[in-house]
Amino acid sequence: MTASKPSGSVSEHPAGGCPVVRCETASVTYRAGKITRTVLDAVTCSVTPGQLIGLIGPSGSGKTTLLHVLAGLQGLSSGSVRWPTMGGPPIEHPGRITVAFQAPSLLGALDVAENIALPLLLAGASQEEAIGRARDVLDRLHLGGLVAQLPEELSGGQAQRVALARALVTRPALLLCDEPTGQVDHHTAETLLDLVLAEASASTTAVVIATHDPSVLVRVQSRWTITDGRLQTA
Questions:
Q1: Is residue 48 part of a domain?
Q2: Could you tell me the residue range of the domain that residue 205 belongs to?
Q3: How many domains does the chain have?
């Protein structure tokens, strides 16, 4: 398949600066026998520090695949993806890119503080530093009262907020959220969104939120629309 630049490629963030991630005519296709399915179709886009983006599109349109490409979790059939400010693929830079998946995926054997500290420990932080930073982010997100609880003791909304804290504790350059409000009630959804936007505004973390929730879209700077694998601005 030959990649070509789409007519609706995404423009740079108004503040400019070196992109956190940039895709050039990035395509992802799957083949099953004689059938070829294009999930991403020649997507060109970039995300710059501090940018807040809402990614919308119908189910199966390619939102999750695009997030995985931006994170370096999904290989391309053609085109390229680069992380200019990180010096290489994210695998070489633990903590620089974080994905907050739709389901919390907390580890049942670890308490809340230990779940949040885990990415830091895997990146080489000491136990003392990791737990200290975990407690700090819990306090910032008004979750300090949950520090010693196990995942089974949390409500669905609490578990989602703890998972978000785990995503933020690494102080990522890029936070990718896959339907973070899709499985919680409206009040919890607003709380989650408040937390993400507050953390982003206090740092240079760029955020891309894949969502079906209209309340998310009114609070972001940019809207991206993906339909049948093709990305366009709103």
A1: yes
A2: 21-107+155-233
A3: 1
Q: How far apart are CA 110 and CA 106, in angstroms?
A: 8
Q: In Å, how far are 109, 137, 158 from 151, measured between CA atoms?
A: 8, 17, 9
pLDDT digits (tens, 9 = 90+) for 174-217: 999 988 766 667 777 777 788 788 777 777 889 999 988 777 88
Question: Is 174 within a domain?
Answer: yes
127 part of a folded domain = no
Q: Tell me: the pLDDT tens digits for 32-66? A: 888 889 999 999 999 998 899 999 998 889 999 99
pTM for this structure? Answer: 0.81
| Cα gap 177→26, rounded to integer Å | 20
